[in-house]
Write a structure and sequence with these properties.
The complex is a heterodimer of chains A (114) and B (111). Chain A contains no helices and eleven strands. With 114 residues, chain A is an all-beta fold. Chain A is globular, with a radius of gyration of 13 Å. Chain A starts with a strand and ends with a strand. The chains are: A mainly beta (114), B mainly beta (111).
Chain lengths: 114, 111
């Protein structure tokens, strides 16, 4: 099993450009999450999904959109990138969304917006 | 949501036992305590989880006192490769997303 994979690993955008980050998991998990991590800080939840076709806002959703058209994929979109969105983005999945369920994380996508 | 407080950083030497304490004064009855480890340029990785008393696995031990207002992650005989950030999380087993990652504790293991 590959676990959780993220595409791309690195990306540089100019202000105003758009892009989509792809997260894929092969563990048949119902729940998927997108986090961002700024230098020296913990992870902050952007959006999450409790199942195919559903999404919900997390702690810092502004400027991002998500879609979960297939159970195994969770896409994060930036419609008009801003320098404040420079960060490392992590995707995660879990069997359920209870506080006791282990989250499996991808390797991250390092995004720089100039 | 139960807020957690951890030391910002800790230093240790190879071969020593490291104990990282997390305070969670507002922990709820159905909340569990979970610890994750994050190496530079990688996503967090689950280490251990417990509800009360002591839990031990091949990587670490977790000590939880009777009042559950704090917990201690114990790493036996650390090595340089244990240098990482360690996150303490508190979450319940009811539905709804409640897990929050704080800033964590940066552990530096020196030779």
């Amino acid at each position: 099993n590959a676990g959780v994979t993220q595409t791309p690993k690195f990306r540089v955008l100019k202000t105003g450009q758009s892009m989509t980050l792809l997260c894929a998991q092969d563990m048949n998990h119902e729940y998927m999450y997108w986090y961002r991590q700024d230098p020296g800080m913990g992870l902050r939840l952007i959006h999450y999904s409790v199942g195919e076709g559903t999404t919900a806002k997390g702690e810092v959703p502004d400027g991002y959109n998500v879609s979960r058209l297939k159970k195994q994929n969770f896409l994060l979109g930036l419609e008009s990138a801003a320098p404040s969105q420079t960060s490392v983005y992590f995707c995660a999945s879990s069997f359920q969304d209870r506080g006791i369920d282990e989250q499996y994380f991808g390797p991250g996508t390092r995004l720089t917006v100039t | 949501l139960a807020k957690t407080t951890q030391p910002i950083s800790m230093d240790s030497y190879e071969g020593q036992e490291v104990n990282i304490t997390c305070s969670h004064n507002n922990i709820a009855t159905n909340d569990y305590i979970t610890w994750y480890q994050q190496f530079p340029s990688q996503g967090p990785r689950f280490i251990i989880q417990g509800y009360k008393t002591k839990v031990t696995n091949e990587v670490a031990s977790l000590f939880i006192p009777a009042d559950r207002k704090s917990s201690t992650l114990s790493l036996p005989r650390v090595s340089l490769s244990d240098t990482a950030v360690y996150y303490c999380l508190v979450g319940g087993n009811t539905g709804g997303f409640k897990t929050i990652f704080g800033a964590g504790t940066r552990l530096f293991v020196k030779a």
